[in-house]
Design goal:
By secondary structure, the chain is an alpha/beta fold. Helix content is 28%, strand content 21%. Helix 4 links the parallel strand 8 and strand 9.
């Protein structure tokens, strides 16, 4: 609820209107009026009112933070196969769990039907416990069904942190569960940290936060969630101090998988979902897989990307030839996709796919910050551009200033020579 204006005390002085940083107050008929859609309960107006005409919003019911333990990872699977981002998040969850406390566990949550075999893979990549939610109605993803059963599990077991991959499914599912749990969600995180001291310090300085239930000596008090903001021009660090679970979506390719430990074991908890066909308001009649060429940017070791510098769509024929030669896949900048030169499935960047290949070739890409946000963690970045001042060279490990239509054929020729020498040496 928003703040409340006491009309019998309000004098229409407009001091509160000027003090509001969110433009949530205005004067109507010489009285202050609150726009509840804009009011954030920052209470900046209360201290400015000289007539005690503004009441703070009633306090929300306090959440017992100590009742929530452990880190959950929504281990997204499709057709009985784990998505790579699930394994990355299990690795990140394992790291966070060990920083929080020795008693904190990283737990994978598997939802579907006939997916018992996936538990061992979760254990191999660091999960210490697997919650198995299975039912024939969960075989294929539907928003209604997955939201209901995950909310039931969260209510019963009370995880402190829940992580989702920022896939099509994760982006659809996470906000719905967060809304039903009355908690926050930070989308597209690029970094997660356990920083208790700075968290407490921030909470104590922010007068709008209720810190009475926060224990500075409790390492499970909070995490810092960092994500790009304002088109990637700055990084915002977000906390969730008063509600649980803390929820984040993380883009594929951002976090690091742990080394696989074959034969690792853990505890499997079978959760019986309470769900019926009446809970699902859509019906999947058929699943038709597209016949077009599919590209897996997140799993590629080498990516050859083209941008506006290609000149037109025909330039991707050279990029495809380049990628085939070096054993990579074709990527692109947003400019090339917007121009209609290539399908969106190839787009790398903040509004496309975040990637972390061993080698990233940026061909004719200037290096807008949105593109850099999606590929700058690549092991090796090779930039080819005619503009020596292009921003892409600031993050490149190797830069070639020149016409890509001359440079790439030279690289292909040298690659052929190297292969010939290698074959001759191994005969």
């Amino acid at each position: 609820m928003a703040i409340k204006i006491l009309n019998d005390k309000c004098k229409g002085c407009s001091l509160c209107v000027k003090a509001c940083p969110f433009d949530a107050l205005k004067l109507e008929n010489k009285l202050a009026v609150v726009d509840e859609g804009k009011c954030t309960n920052c209470n900046a107006c209360i201290s400015k009112c000289k007539f005690d005409a503004i009441e703070a919003a009633p306090e929300a019911e306090k959440v017992d933070l100590s009742a929530y333990k452990h880190i959950w990872v929504f281990a997204e699977q499709r057709n009985g196969k784990l998505m790579n981002v699930a394994l990355e998040l299990i690795g990140e969850g394992y790291r966070l769990a060990k920083e929080i406390s020795d008693d904190t566990q990283v737990c994978a949550v598997l939802v579907g039907d006939g997916i018992d075999h996936l538990a061992d893979e979760c254990f191999a990549y660091g999960a210490e416990k697997v919650y198995m939610i299975q039912d024939p109605l969960l075989k294929n993803y539907t928003t209604d069904a997955y939201t209901k059963v995950l909310k039931q599990a969260i209510d019963e077991y009370k995880p402190e942190i829940v992580l989702y991959g920022a896939t099509h499914i994760g982006r659809d599912l996470a906000p719905r569960i967060a809304a039903r749990c009355n908690t926050g969600l930070t989308a597209d995180c690029t970094r997660l940290d356990v920083k208790v001291s700075s968290y407490i310090e921030y909470a104590e300085k922010n007068t709008t936060l209720d810190t009475s239930s926060l224990d500075p000596n409790d390492p499970s008090t909070g995490i810092k969630q960092t994500r790009p903001a304002f088109g990637g021009n700055l990084m915002a660090t977000i906390i969730c101090p008063r509600t649980r679970p803390q929820m984040s979506t993380v883009r594929p390719g951002v976090m690091q998988k742990r080394e696989k430990v074959e034969g690792a074991k853990g505890e499997v908890v079978n959760v019986k979902p309470e769900i019926s066909a009446d809970d699902i308001h859509i019906q999947i009649v058929d699943i038709v897989k597209s016949a077009k060429e599919m590209v897996s940017l997140t799993d590629a070791d080498i990516i050859c990307s083209g941008g506006r510098g290609l000149g037109d769509a025909s330039g991707f024929e050279l990029i495809k030839q380049f990628a085939d030669k070096v054993g990579g896949v074709v990527g692109s900048s947003r400019a090339a996709v917007d121009a209609g030169w290539i399908d969106h499935s190839h787009q790398v960047g903040q509004t496309g796919t975040t990637v972390k290949p061993k080698i990233y070739f940026a061909c004719g890409i200037s290096g807008a910050i949105q593109h850099l946000a999606g590929m700058q963690t690549s092991d090796i970045i090779v930039a080819i551009n005619k503009d020596a001042d292009a921003p892409i060279f600031e993050v490149a490990d190797y830069g070639i200033v020149g016409d890509l239509y001359k440079v790439i054929p030279e690289i292909i020729a040298e690659w052929d020579n190297a292969e010939a020498l290698y074959d001759a040496a191994n005969k």
